[in-house]
Amino acid sequence: MRNVQNGSMARIIRLSRATGLLAMVFLIGGCANNGPKEKLAAAYQQLDTQNPNYVEISAAADAYLQASPTGPAAADAYYLQGRALEAKSQRDPASPQKDCADAYNAYSQALALKPRPGLEGLIHVGMGNILYFQDRYAAAVGELTAGYEKLERDNDKAWALYRIALSQQRLGRWAEADKNYTVVQQQFPNSEPASRARDKRGYNAFWVQVATFPNPQVASAAMAELKKQGMTAQLFVDTTRNAQVVRVGPLSYEGATATRQKILTKYPYAAIVP
Question: Full-prediction pTM beyond 0.90?
Answer without folding.
Answer: no
